[in-house]
Amino acid sequence: MTSNRIFSLSLLALAVLAACSADVLAQPGGGRGRFGGPGGDVTGLLQSDNVRAELEITDDQLADLQSMGDDLRNEMRSMFEGMRDLSDEERRDRFQTMREDMEDIRAEAESRMGNILLPHQMARLKEIQLQQQIQRGGLQGALRGPLAEELGITDAQREELMAKAQELQQEMQEKIAQLRKDAEEELMQVLTPEQQSKLKSMTGSEFEVEQRGFGRGGFGGQQGPGGRGGRGRPQGN
């Protein structure tokens, strides 16, 4: 087994922690300026070869991160033991108590990671994480919580950002729809007239499904109209 594979497996607990805590804590009052969130938890970023290369992670640091992953995996395993045997109500109650436990484990992970990585490595990791948040969730999504406070975003700016994001989202939807239509028309030219006619009869009359926007975080997410990857059904000429 390669060292990269071992590293990824050792940090599996951290990735699970990021995913679970994001779901459990994605409720009012759940967040406390944590590392994670849509767009790349730092623990997930550390599984990337080029991120570790950018940070110049040493073999000793890698070993310490693996050990940390093992410890946190054991904590997570203990936390979820017996969940399958609980009733729905008991499971909801357990998740309520797990919210604080998740925050404690996350804080522990961040503290230990801060002791493993050098200050400049930790600073660079946070920069990369913020870049990922902006790329995947959009600037509107990133400018919330602690970041908004740090930049001094005013209420007026926040309202303007939301209004502008909605405006741009509509423009992007229209442009994407036109690009998709143009692409489909070009692709249809590869088919024979008989094939085009048959495809049109198979798809039936045109129907537009109402879309909810771009991704989870609103404007700037990865998902476009038509669901994941922006797929839509072929349309005839």
Automatic annotation (TrEMBL):
PROSITE patterns: PROKAR_LIPOPROTEIN. Residues 151-189 form a coiled coil. Residues 214-237 have a biased composition (Gly residues). The keyword Coiled coil applies. Residues 192-204 have a biased composition (Polar residues). Keywords: Coiled coil, Signal. Residues 1-26 form the signal peptide. Residues 192-237 are annotated as: Disordered. This is LTXXQ motif family protein. The lineage of its organism: Bacteria, Pseudomonadati, Planctomycetota, Planctomycetia, Pirellulales.
